[in-house]
Design brief:
single chain; 382 residues; alpha/beta; Aspartate Aminotransferase, domain 1; 7-stranded mixed sheet; 12 strands
Amino acid sequence: MLSLQRSKFSLPKSITYLNCAYMSPLLKKVEKAGIEGIKGKRNPIHISPKEFFTSGELLRKQFAKLVGSKDPKRIAIIPSASYGMANAAHNIKLRSSEKVIVMGEQFPSNYYPWQRLCLDSGARLETIAPPQTRVNRGKVWNERILDAIDNNTRIVAMGHVHWADGTLYNLKEIRKRTLEVGALLLIDATQSVGALPFNIQSIQPDVLVCAGYKWMMGPYSIGLAYYGPYFDNGTPIEENWINRLNSEDFAGLVNYEVAYQPGALRYEVGEHSNFILAPMMLEALQQINEWKPKNIQEYCAKISKRPIELLRENGFWIEDDQYRANHLFGVRLPEGKDIKTVKAKLKKKNISVSYRGDAIRVSPHVYNQEKELMNFARVLIE
């Protein structure tokens, strides 16, 4: 079991930060790696051509380890989740008779690519909305998703958990169903990978994209993606020099290549060798792989158990335990509670959370303690 890791961060004692789903605080070692990267740019004579590639190789290996991929060449370095999904959408042709399934109130980066693809092709975009009930909500939502996947389904684009309230999707059953009908499964795991176990071998997604600045605890503007065999011979949205075959040979760069780098490497963003962001992301992934997402889940479950029980006893609604994550959960107010008043109270107490839809999104991590979550619960109940 993990213990409190707050000493590894620079969070002020006066702040209760329950908002990793918004943006993670930087680990001290990640901050240090960024500063060292900036210092290194002072005198670029020490940055060799080889270093344009070594940091990427290390990053891919760490991410592959995190998500259980056996082949680091299936991993691409991307600047954002939307970039990763755009590469996927660019390589899928839809017929007007087909449909794309997304979840209700899905994050825009995993909605707009499919909206555009459907508008251009005449295909149907089907949204599976959450049930308007608080009884077995997560269970019923998952059942509705499975029921919607039929022989006309070409794409299911979704998260691992819902970004606004942490509702957990049964990806194993959804993958099983998509394989039965020949549909692609594309997952934005920005709100799960790093804190919730994910295994490529088990789920077998066609695409997995993750922004790095939330649960992977890296800086902004860098992320990672997995692309399955369907995309092995695709065309990237960006024609840059480094994703072409033999780009390692600086002397031969004007021997223009038609072929791309193998596998997912063709989908990497230009300048992904970033000598500031890449070392920061690497430090973050190494720490997460040391902690292990399973242990992070257990820690978050331990410190949130009593506060959640207290909130439920006082009429607040939180998704059933088996259908939510421990690192991210939504709290919905009982009748008579005013959200504006609650916001003002939390702000006064220096408690940082997010407000998404009708839920207060709470997202603790290993720098938090049970007493912080108990204090949060008591402020809501007052």
